[in-house]
Amino acid sequence: MAAQFQFVMRSGPTPGATYSLEGDQLVIGRDSSSGIAINDAEVSRKHARLNFQGGKYVIEDLGSTNGTFVNGQRLTSSVVLKSGDVVSLGEQIVLLYEALSTDTGATMISQKAPARTAVGARPVSAPAPAPAPVPQAYAAPAAPAAPAMVKPGNNMPLFIAIGVVALICLCVVFFVGVDQLNLWCKFPISIITPVFGGVCP
User: Fold this and answer.
1) pTM of the predicted protein model
2) Contact present, 161 and 167 (Cβ < 8 Å)
3) Angle at Cα 50 formed by Cα 46 and Cα 53, nearest 5°?
């Protein structure tokens, strides 16, 4: 698979600028004839060189004044670059090394296409759930009222009242009878006649 490499300037005279890396050998320097020309005082005329070996770029310093650094380490020999490495030229110029795939025949993972229905067929939607039955209010039948229970000990006042009424009735009948028969002066009624204010001869 073919691959394309590039530098992206993180800091320097043109931040964000990209430099495509093509060819077996590239020189980085301030000289306008360099494969990667960076016009800055930090960069030597011929600062560093890139060699394409075994599908990878190898960088080496060309005796620059301010040095070449990979991930903060100053180069004293050739170093194989990996995607994501940070290459610094002096203290101010910072380049990010990137590997980009350019294989046009590569198959990209596509999102799953939505399922199609037959021509003229309508999508079948799930039937709507039947509404839950509404419970009817249930009123329990009223229990019949229990007959009043008369407790055994509560009959005495009733008997007393009946007895008093009966006694009064007997007294009234007795005195009416005595008066009608004129028995006020007959013994033994003559004994109670003075109580009612009567006088017998």
Assistant:
1) 0.48
2) no
3) 155
Interval 97-113: pLDDT, tens: 998 865 544 433 333 43
- At residue 24 the predicted structure's pLDDT band, cuts being 50, 70 and 90, is very high
Distance from C-alpha of 174 to C-alpha of 191, rounded to nearest angstrom: 15
Q: Which candidate, 28, 58, 60, 21, places its Cα nearest to that of 44?
A: 28
- State the Cα–Cα distance between residues 107 and 55, nearest whole angstrom: 22
Residue 200 is predicted with a pLDDT of: 59
Got the DSSP string for 6-60?
Answer: EEEEEESSSTT-EEEE-SSEEEEESSTTSSEE---TTS-TT-EEEEEETTEEEEE
- For residues 83 and 97, the answer to whether their CB atoms sit within 8 Å is yes
Position of tokens 């101010």?
92
Q: Look at strands 86-89 and 36-37 and give their pairing.
A: unpaired
H-only helix segments in the chain:
156-181
Residue 106 zone, left/alpha/beta (φ > 0; ψ -120 to 50; rest): beta
